């Protein structure tokens, strides 16, 4: 069978979209990975295709308001790099929104996440495990969850393997906390 360049480009695009929620092959990609979705398709968890890193946002301008909000976070989140957090969060956008209007994607909307009870974002269908977890998403709890979602809340549907890199995890969680404050 002969493959056209359009078929190859289409296949690569599909792999990139699905691969963002799946297992990363390259160590550098695994270290910059972030949570995908609470309800992503289980098949994505076994996807062995390496996804290209998400494009980094243009040089992030951090407002004085964001700097103040960052300083109020508990350590080590109060010294996080919000520009790196934005870059890491770009991968989360495959499944999550961070919309003040609260629109869910494949995963629940992240706006107002810090302080929210697990499994309670209105309009999102959670796994029984997430609904029963009884967690409050403060930064230390989110840190443990994002490190290894399947271990921290066994039975949840998030297909993402976790963010093993402490700095990237701290930066993305601080970014979410600052950018989604209610």
Give the overall average pLDDT: 76
Helices and strands, in order, run as HHHHHHHH
Q: Biggest sheet, in brief? A: none
- Extract low-pLDDT stretches: 3-59
Coarse morphology = globular
Number of strands: 0
Strand content: under 5%
* Rounded Rg: 16 Å
Distance between the termini: 54 Å
Helix amount:
25-40%
- Class of secondary structure makeup: mainly alpha
Number of helices: 8
Describe how the helices and strands are arranged.
Layout: H1 5-19, H2 27-32, H3 64-71, H4 82-92, H5 128-132, H6 139-147, H7 149-152, H8 166-179
Please provide a written account of the structure.
This protein has 182 residues and is mainly α. The chain contains eight helices and no strands. The protein has helices spanning 5-19, 27-32, 64-71, 82-92, 128-132, 139-147, 149-152, 166-179. Helix 4 crosses helix 8 (166-179) and helix 6 (139-147) crosses helix 8 (166-179). It starts with a helix and ends with a helix.
What would a concise description of this structure say?
The chain is an all-alpha fold and 182 residues long. The chain has helices spanning 5-19, 27-32, 64-71, 82-92, 128-132, 139-147, 149-152, 166-179.
Key terms for this structure?
182 residues, mainly alpha, 8 helices, 40% helix, disordered N terminus
